[in-house]
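Protocol step 4 of 5: obtain the predicted structure for the target chain.
Materials: sequence only (see below). No template structures provided, no constraints applied. The aim of this step is simply to have a reference model before the mutagenesis design in step 5. Sequence pasted as it appears in the construct record:
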Amino acid sequence: MNHFLTHVINPFFYWLAWVIIPLIVEVIPSIGSYFVLLHQERKKKKLVEPAIWPDIVLIIPVYNSEDSLERCLQSVNECDYPNDHIEVYLVNNMSTDKSFAAFARAQEKYPSLRMNWLNSGQGKSRALNLAIYNSKGSYLINIDSDGYLEKHALKNMILRLENYPEYTCLTGSILTRPDKIEEYKTIKARLFRRIEFCEYAQAFLAGRNFASETNSMYTLSGAFSAFRMSSIRKSHLYNTETISEDTEITFQMRYIQKQKVGICVDAIYFTDPIEGVNKLYTQRQRWQRGSLEVARLYPQSKLRPWRFAKDTNIHTLLFDHTFAFPRMIWYLALIVLMCYGFSSTTVLVSMGVIFAFYIVCGYLYFHIAQHLLKPFPETRAYYKKQWAIVALLPFYNFVVFFIRLAGIINSINTQSSWKTDTLTREADKFRVAARESLGRFSDAIKKFRGLVNNEDKYYEQ
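Step 4 output (structure tokens):
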């Protein structure tokens, strides 16, 4: 009996816990989404251009965008969407640099582009709402000022909205700029940002594309998204109480207005690659905290755990937040297992199997993404060159998981803010706190020794 337990039952439950569960929760859905996206491509219909292109309002929040604003407006001017059907609102979010001078130069360069400058109070959501109050047109599109649009992005976005009336809003595909990535001088810096490029490509062209196909989009991208003006005017507009206003407006569209939210994969917006590890740390924490804030603001009757299988919003909240601490224990418990008699070989093999599955999923998504980039030969060629880097994505995501976990912990103890502590700053705080704790511990030991010594002297007397 003991032999049966040792050689059959224990290994069975080990593999159930460490391999089968991750396989069911993450790997199998990833493989399923691959085949769904293949089916989507086969049944894709030909889009029909409207006889008259509708008027659109383009909102660009501006905050210290002196260096990037002209390039952003140049991309709008160079888009193949007719300028006489575009009205641009640049909403200044209390900039302290020469962003207005960049706007003035752009006005002189692109006289056919109708541009308006508005001053807003602090906060991106307030800036967006101010522009919405002042805008007219059939569609509302917002983009960030620190990147630029691909030439066909606006036309592709409107074309999809015109041909798919069931969608009330769409997000574009966000990619990091290949030219900026290759400007970094060291191999390490370029590798880090190439991994980020692959992450974005797979997240939008595969991940959100699948969510769009299954009507399970969790959040629109704040960098580039489009709305029917009729729908945005029926909403509560952008929420000013959260740092994740994009997720909140998505929840409004899905749950309050009962509308479909999707993606236009061939509407591409290029943004700068991440500046460094500190920036990645604050960015991912902000995203994590923001989704928790939206869940708190949203009516709790809509977010019931038993709707896990049917509602991707609940699935995302449970998996990213509720399961975060068990997943952390899952990782750290691997070390403990070796202390309980499991060989290091068994533990390492099981981890290898899991990461091998993740890598396979990465290459399935890679195949989908490079296929969807066919209309953009330069971007596709760059992406295809990164085929070897796809194998590193599971390890990158492993690190990002702990950053997001820190975001959950910090959301408990600190107030929400766009300006969060960097990794360096938090490390400094930890060192100071550790020194203080060790100092108090050392003082306590000294006091204890003093008491013991005094008692010894007393008994000697």
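Step 4 remarks: The beta strands are 56-62, 86-92, 114-119, 139-143, 147-149, 167-176, 224-228, 260-271. The chain has two domains: 1-44+164-419, 422-461.
Proceed to step 5.
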